[in-house]
Write a structure and sequence with these properties.
The protein has helices spanning 2-28, 50-55, 57-68, 73-86, 113-126, 142-145, 159-170, 178-184, 200-214, 236-241, 323-326, 345-351, and strands spanning 34-35, 40-41, 91-92, 95-97, 103-104, 133-139, 225-233, 249-255, 261-265, 270-272, 297-302, 310-315, 332-336, 357-363. It is of the alpha+beta class. The protein has one domain.
Length: 377
């Protein structure tokens, strides 16, 4: 009897010591504002008030803070995801755990197709198409091109059908790069394993589709200077799945030794001769090395371009890794991120009559929720 009592007391003491130790660690450990692994800001300690206590928001916020700042949180989160994958789970936080170490986002058909097409049509109708050639490229993502890597029983993607419907509804001449990407899939890695973007090689096949549609002679990949800038890229899908033992990605960039570039970031006034900012290689968000992250308007001049034509590029981040290939064909490229450019590309076009080409480039997975679509007109 006494032995049982001693055992119970020992267990209670150990539990108390464990709880006390965790509490001390929680209070004493340095608090982070941002989780690089999860690519998000962590919860802040809530301010107390009688109102928030009574309506429950204080305790909810306190629970969020405790969960976000739990000692060795990254280790336990990674352990949980690793255990789920080891047990056969193939979808975590709306990301498929695919074959060959691929994380792949599923695709849901857009709910705002009418709004998207209406905005594109209004933009297209306003342009004098006798002077400016307008093209639309809707890029399929890995869920379509790498469907063979999806888990068993994952539903088939309808990206191709949705893109065709948008092309038909807008009447804008389409540059469908789907077949180019299918053909290129056997030539190398076209999408990152841990991120939702296409790789630089994937962007090159998108560029080949553009050149084919425009009658341009593409620059051979072999004539460009390739540079592997990192082998430690852990992208947005890595941050959603939280399997921190997962294999990282390699980022390779290409430069054309024949180009003579002047790149101006209009919002900051920064001027450089490169389309890459390699400072981002040391940060979590390494994809931002393409075009130096987010800018409302970037002006690119290439004195060594093979034409005097000018391109207006209205885009999402997929286009960032394709611009270095396009730059050789245009004396000037104006790159718009219409989520942040407030004056409207249509007005800009009216003031820049030397623009000869317009390319609207968006990926299919974020098209529905991309606020930049509403800003193109």
């Amino acid at each position: 009897m006494l032995t049982n009592i001693k055992i119970k007391r020992t267990v209670v003491c150990l539990l108390c010591i464990g709880i006390l130790s965790l509490s001390v660690c929680l209070l004493a450990s340095p608090k982070r504002e941002f989780s690089e692994n999860e690519n998000r800001y962590l919860a802040k300690f809530p301010a107390f008030s009688v109102r928030t206590l009574l309506d429950g928001t204080y305790t909810d916020s306190l629970n969020d803070w405790l969960a976000d700042h739990f000692p060795q949180r990254d280790f336990f989160v990674g352990l949980k995801s690793g255990a789920e994958i080891a047990c056969g789970r193939r979808e975590i936080n709306r990301v498929y755990v695919g074959k060959d170490d691929y994380f792949i986002e599923p695709y849901a058909a857009p709910e705002n197709t009418d709004r998207i097409t209406d905005t594109l049509v209004r933009f297209y109708d306003k342009i004098d198409r006798t002077k400016v050639d307008v093209r639309l490229m809707l890029v399929p993502t890995a869920v379509t091109i790498y469907s063979d890597k999806l888990p068993t029983h994952a539903p088939a993607s309808s990206q191709t059908e949705t893109a065709s419907a948008i092309y038909d509804a807008t009447g804008i001449p389409a540059i469908d790069c789907t077949d180019w990407l299918f053909d290129g899939a056997s030539q190398g890695q076209l999408y990152y394993r841990t991120d939702h973007h296409w790789t630089t090689l994937g962007a090159y096949y998108g560029y080949l589709a553009y050149c084919d549609a425009k009658g341009l002679t593409p620059t051979a990949l072999e004539s460009l200077t390739a540079q592997t800038v990192t082998e430690e890229f852990a992208g947005t899908l890595y941050s959603k799945v939280n399997d921190y033992s997962h294999k990282k990605d390699t980022i390779t960039i290409y430069t054309n030794p024949g180009d003579d570039l002047t790149v101006t970031y209009v919002d900051t006034g920064e001027v450089t001769d490169s389309l890459y900012n390699l400072d981002y290689v040391t940060e979590k968000d390494k994809y931002s090395l393409f075009l130096n992250n987010i800018h409302p308007l970037i002006e690119i001049e290439n004195k060594a371009a093979d034409s005097q034509e000018e391109l207006m590029l209205i885009k999402d981040s997929y286009a960032n890794s394709m611009v270095p290939f396009l730059a050789h064909h245009y004396r000037k490229i104006y790159v718009f991120d219409t989520r942040y450019y407030r004056d409207g590309p249509s007005s800009f076009l009216s003031d820049h009559t030397s623009i000869t080409d317009i390319l609207l480039l968006y990926n299919m997975n974020t098209l529905d929720g991309d606020t930049g679509i509403r800003g193109i007109y």
